[in-house]
Design brief:
The protein is mainly alpha-helical. The chain folds into 2 domains: 238 residues, no CATH class; 118 residues, abc type-2 transporter like domain (abc type-2 transporter like fold, 3-Layer(aba) Sandwich). Helices cover 65% and strands 6% of the residues. The chain contains 16 helices and 4 strands. It has a 4-stranded mixed beta sheet, sandwiched between helices. Helix 10 crosses helix 11 and helix 11 runs antiparallel to helix 15. It is found in: Cell membrane. It is a multi-pass membrane protein.
Amino acid sequence: MNFKSLKNVVTREFKKIFLTPDMLLICIAAPIFYALLFCGLYAKQRALDINIAAINSDHTSVSRKFLRYADASPELKIAHVYSSPNEALSQIFSDNINAFYFIPKGFDANLKKGKSVPIYAAATGTNFLAASTALRKFSLLSLEFPKKEFVKILTDKGYSYKAASAAFVPLSADIRHIYNPEMNYSDFLLPCLMFIVLQQILIVAICTSVTVEKKKDTTKELYETAGKSFTIAFLGKCLPYILLGLALNIINIFIFLPMDAMYASSLTGLFVISAAFTVAVSCFAMLISIFFKSPEMSMAVLMFYSLPTTMLSGVIWPHHALPWTLKIASYIFPSTYAFNELRLFILGDISVKYAVFPAVTLIIFAAVCFALTYLISLKRRKFLSI
């Protein structure tokens, strides 16, 4: 390989990135904007002070104490008190509250007798973040509070703490969440958003660069700069964007994202997969750019790229549950081989050996894209031409 020619192509592409306003907007301004946006949106990691309502039909000190427990939680805020569930339901429709807790009559009396104590909760399913937080907190409170109160009643009557605890024998569930113990929605969502944006930026930037070459009829000049080597021209065109993608990963993880979870424990594995993903996306962008005649055409088509590929990747809907036709179609896109693994390495302390298979798969995907680009260009007898 002629490294001088490769250097010339890489330098030529970097000049296009930093001296062309459109490319500066796509490659520099857009990533910074998205990083700042994510930083602002998810600075607190989790939703706090979610508005809920309380309906206390028991009107006892114990039922009021339960509601104080709920209100003391940083995630919840009892913003309203209503007299009936129907009244609270109407406020959910009006979007004044996200959930409500209903304590029926007999709560205190049944608790003192050690009987089953029903408490009801309802939350709007139109807001996943608020609803899941309110219902999860309700589940924790409903497990902890009855035992505390029942044990207190018996100890006040002279029973030892051990005997009082033994008298309360409900089903004991030990539930543990792996890799996202707080079940923070931002920890679940941010890794996907990071790489969805990175993928879109790389694809749009490379397709724009290639289609501008076609529009200005400079593909021959590019080929000559590469010493008439397809491999050097291809690699020289991709390499600046691969380096840019790796830089954006580092900036996002260590500078912009203000959350402990994003300081990944598995940095080596994360770097290996993110590097392979960046290479695969860049090669994929070079392949699909062949089919676009102009920058306008590429932008029009790529408007519809991110959402379908994200949905097919398995991060929103389980990949194994996709219809077989969509499952086959999903293997066309690099995100299918990377998104779940990238999120896993960001959130969990995973051994680097688990990064090898997805990284190798992505490199094979990149090699296939390179080969297809070469064969199509060879058939058309012109570099990167349709």
